[in-house]
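ok so for the tutorial part 2 we go from a plain amino acid sequence to predicted structure tokens. step 1 is just haveing the sequence, like this:
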Amino acid sequence: MRWLNRTVLGIGLASLFSDLSHEMATTLMPAFLGTMGVAAAWLGLVEGVADGLSSFAKMASGYYTDRMQRRKPIAIAGYLTTALGTVAFGLATSAWQVLFARSFAWLGRGVRTPVRKALLAGAVTSASYGRAFGFERMMDTLGAIAGPASAFFLLSALHQQYAKLFALTLIPGLLAVAMIAFVVKEGQRKAVAHISLNERLRALPPRFRRFLIAVGIFGAGDFAHTLLILLATQKLAPDIGAAKAVAIAIGLYVLHNVFYAAFSMIVGWLADHFSKSNLLALGYSVAALMAFAIIILPINVWTLAMIFVVGGVYVAMEETLEDSLCAELVGEEHHGMAFGTLATVNGIGDFLSSMIVGALWTMMGTGVAFGYSAVLFVAGALLVARTAVRPVA
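step 2 — the prediction. this is what the tokens look like for a chain of 393 residues:
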């Protein structure tokens, strides 16, 4: 079976268009909230609540998708919900309305995530998991490059009229829906017999559960990288002005996503030839280096550029390796449940990390906030390194 087939390509294109859509909105969200006079704690709250709601949707979707003969309709509904929630940013006039729109968009993201991953894993052999998931992450990140870049140019062209820019996100959002509906081909599968959620969780292998513990500890410190945009904006604004600081912060986020995209395919190839658990431990260690750099180094354009680059590299390693390792540890018939559980653990971590880091930043400064993340990153790296997984032959 060819690993780069119609379904892998269709899922990759859907990820590209969807990420282009919501990254346009995400990139501008810190500045948009800034026009409402809110602080880092509010941004952390928006990201945390949205990720927390998404995590419950991922678990439910993962549980039910294994019991269905056709998974694709759930993916279509999820992508459509994300598109509508993202365009709703343009209707917001207060921070709580941004919170509602983001949460609605991320509810759709939660529904579609385990389904998309299960469709992807079912379209290739186990020997190609790394490349398939690396390709999907690369395409997703190409959208994450195009999104901030589009936001950067459109923000100036539209004279900072946020509502119009958010409205434009609907175009790539609907293209993502079309890719899933008309390009992705779902093969025949036998639905898993109905058992309780608790029984399904107990059926997951012990090695997978150990892996989830490491993911959860790391995730509790893995804050949303919109906080890096806010960091750059706040640190640069006193010297160069708010408008230039926002522009540079967006440019740095594009740089972050360039490295994210580039390393996704590299890491995917490595994952098909070396120990996924050892590579993931290395990725978690790179995240710790980024957090320590924020604490120790003087913050200027050059150090920020390094921080954003390292951030992009570790996210590529984290996401590609977590997904391909998950697919390897669990049988295909339980992929939906496994991906849903993994996504839920990550979502709970995101909920905690973004809120805690945002609150610590507001109350005690960046040193304490990112020091908290650094400690959990190191702990996650040590734990995942001990996960006994045989490398793929």
